[in-house]
Every structure is written in C-alpha cells, then in structure tokens.
Amino acid sequence: MDRLPLTVVGGYLGAGKTTLINRLLREDHGLRLMVMVNDFGSVNIDAELLKSVGEDTIELTNGCVCCTMGADLFMALGDVLDRVPRPDHLVIEASGIADPKKIADAARAEPEMEYGGIALVVDAGNFAVLAADAQIGAQIRGQVGVADLLLVSKCGAEVPGALAMQLATMSPAPTVALDGLEAVAPLLLGGIEPGTGRGTGADHGAYVTWGHDSDEVMDHEALRARLEAAPAGLYRVKGFMRGPEGGFEFHKVGPSVEITRLEQPPAVSRVVGIGPAAQISAEEIAAWWSDREEA
Fold first, then answer.
1. pTM for this one?
2. C-alpha torsion angle, residues 117, 120, 121, 122 (rounded to 10)
3. Are 49 and 18 in contact (CB under 8 A)?
C-alpha cells in the first residue's frame, strides 16, 4: 500500500490557519482528505468554525473528513492509517502555539506515512510586532524557521516587500501571498518541497486559556469596544456573540479586531482568550469580561 502523505499547517494564533483549511476543503481537488484540528484551548472554537455537525468529527459530501485530535499524536495517526478506505492525504492543523516540526517528525517516524512538508501561515498585519515581542518573538521566528512554505495572509495579491525581506532572513522557504492564489490545494497537497526549512523550532513558554459561554446579547458597537479594551497580555480572543438580530463571529489578534455579522444567531455566546502566562492570568481575563457584563 502507498504511504499516506502528511502536510502540517502551522502559524501563530489568529494567522488564518482555519480559514486556509476551510478554503482547501471547499476546493475541487478530487481527493479524500483527512483533516485533524489540534487547536489550543478548552473550548474548541476553531473546530466550530469548520461547521462540525458531530461532537468531534465532520464528514463532508466530497469525501473529506475533519476531526479533532487527542493528546496522543501517534495514536491519532494510527487511527487514520487504519481507516477503510484510507484517506488520500492527511492535513494536520497545528495549534497556534505549537512547534509544527514536532508534528512533522511524527510523520517521519511512521513507516506508512510520507512527509509532505510544513506550510506556515503568516499574518502580514501582525507578524513584525509579534516577531519582535520579548515574550513570544523567539517562538514566532522559530515557527518560520522550520517551515517549508510560507503562506502570507491578509496582504492582498502580493507580499509586502519589507515583510518578504524579513521572512527571507529567517527562512529559505518560498513565500506566497494567499490572496493571490486561485487554489491552495496544488500547493498544500504535493506542491511543497519537504526539507526546505532548516530551523530547529523554539519551545514556547506557558500559555493560559480562558473560555466562557453565556446567553448574552451585544450589538456590534459594544462588542468592538469591549474587544478593543482587552488587556495587553491577551494576545488572542475569538468567539461568537448573539446580537439583537442575528449574531457575530469575532477575532482579535494583538490590536487587530475583526467582526463578521451572522444571519443566524449562535446557540450560545462564546468567548475564548489566550495569552502567555507570564503576562496574564485566567482570573485577569475573566475580570475583563466580567467588567463588560456588569457594565
């Protein structure tokens, strides 16, 4: 039996990994994909964004399957290899704080798998600030160093010159603007040259995550104001909010806030916050959100 190709999709919190995965699943590539979501946090918002209809698995009409991955990576890989029929390609979405090389190394250690490379999503709007951050900068740069392909998000059809030069000092991997691609499948599913990345990665410090569900309702203006008032140490906020009419999906990475209107209100209002433990605690995140609820 042919070995199963594995592609790892990495990138820091909020870079656009799940958006890339959704785009891949929508494309007409004719392959049975297995996509594993390995997101950080007690409330798996990213799996919800994949429009899962099961507790931890979604099967699509085009033959693709999405599932969440447990703590044991090798066991999860074994389950994939045992599937009948076996998928044509496995894609793992690494946690935003993970070293994608460690996941790739698992594929190299499995005789029935073929390493297909690491594609790293880079947030054009926030990368320079995050890479220079005293707490997480080494981790951000380490992710870039191990990548075999750099996919730059939120930049239009071309990668800004200054960012391209900065990335070139960290990695010899090709740099591509995501918005300029007609399709991502040709790159992710066989178009990566494995081994391009030469870095060794970087261990991340401790992170704290906090999640909260409620039946709360907020309008667009109030939601944006609250997100913009988030504590400085809260690097990533994401979730869904019920609105007076419909609802909202929201994301905050550093100072950037994105709010998308939803026609149908979510079942619950849900928020997840993530940040380095050295800069913020779960209690501080909860206090910030409680201030909003009490206002």
1. 0.75
2. -150
3. yes
Range list of β-strands (E), 196-235: 207-214
pLDDT in tens, 185-238: 999 999 998 876 665 555 555 778 889 999 999 999 999 999 999 998 888 888
Same domain for 138 and 267, yes or no, is: no
Tokens representing 233 are 């140490």
For the chain, what is the domain count? 2
Domain that holds residue 159: 4-188
User: How many residues are listed for the chain in this entry?
Assistant: 295
DSSP state of 217: B
Burial of 171 (0-12, 13-18, 19+ CB in 10 A): buried
Interatomic CA distance for residues 101 and 105, integer angstroms = 6
Nearest to 228 by CA among 258, 249, 207: 258
- At position 145, the amino acid (one-letter code) is G
Retrieve residue 168's tokens: 């070139």
Greatest distance between any 2 Cα atoms in the chain: 62
Side-by-side strand order, sheet with 149-153: 57-59, 65-68, 33-37, 89-93, 4-10, 113-123, 149-153, 175-177
Same domain as 173, residue 244: no
Q: Is 170 part of any domain?
A: yes
Does residue 48 surpass a pLDDT of 50?
no
Tokens of 271: 């928020």
Q: What pLDDT, on the 0 to 100 scale, is given for residue 61?
A: 52
